[in-house]
Task: inverse folding
């Protein structure tokens, strides 16, 4: 996305100067990517998109324009838009981490989950991704809400539930190439036909969509 850095507002450039060189590059390119995506959606000049996406905060667009959520890992960034509040997370399916330790600490009493002795890396990665997406949809924090989200497995549809807030979200989870993608929303369960995945976004503003 290197050629997209010119799609930055004065405020975004000012913020980038307060960051390290590496973080500034990611900040400018990711905001440019969001602006270009929303530009295609709303048919507005990218620099005129009223996007507020400060470092470490959930990106926002004005009420009446819908809701967005982003997730990034390594050199991948994914963005989703919907009329209602929504959350998204993307994880590399072969990501290596101490999944057994996480399972014992957070997920051993979770409804629908296997015994921690039988659990595998993919189960925990899927669960972790679901929680990340749920927290983004709710606007919460991982440190405060991680233990409160519980996965409810269904025959055809899964849900994720926060007992303290009495909040239940639809969970949409699927694999795309080497990535696990989780989407959470209050009312809507998405099928793959509802989603357009665009990749290889280039400097000229074109997409390859699948």
Result:
């Amino acid at each position: 996305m290197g050629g997209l850095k010119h799609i930055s507002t004065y405020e975004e450039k000012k913020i980038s100067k307060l960051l390290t060189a590496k973080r500034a590059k990611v900040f400018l390119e990711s905001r440019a990517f969001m602006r270009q995506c929303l530009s295609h959606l709303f048919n507005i000049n990218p620099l005129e998109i009223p996007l507020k996406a400060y470092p470490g905060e959930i990106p926002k667009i004005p009420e009446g324009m819908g809701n967005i959520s982003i997730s990034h890992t390594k050199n991948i960034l994914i963005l989703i838009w919907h009329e209602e509040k929504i959350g998204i997370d993307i994880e590399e399916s072969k990501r290596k981490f101490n999944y057994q330790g996480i399972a014992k600490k957070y997920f051993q009493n979770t409804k629908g989950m296997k015994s921690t002795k039988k659990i595998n890396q993919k189960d925990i990665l899927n669960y972790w991704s679901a929680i990340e997406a749920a927290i983004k949809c709710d606007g919460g924090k991982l440190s405060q809400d991680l233990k409160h989200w519980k996965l409810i497995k269904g025959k055809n549809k899964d849900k994720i539930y926060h007992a303290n807030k009495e909040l239940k979200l639809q969970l949409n989870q699927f694999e795309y190439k080497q990535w696990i993608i989780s989407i959470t929303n209050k009312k809507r369960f998405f099928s793959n036909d509802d989603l357009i995945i665009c990749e290889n976004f280039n400097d000229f503003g074109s997409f390859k969509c699948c």
Q: What stands out?
A: The CA atoms of residues 124 and 167 lie 22 Å apart. The chain is about 30% helix and 25% strand.
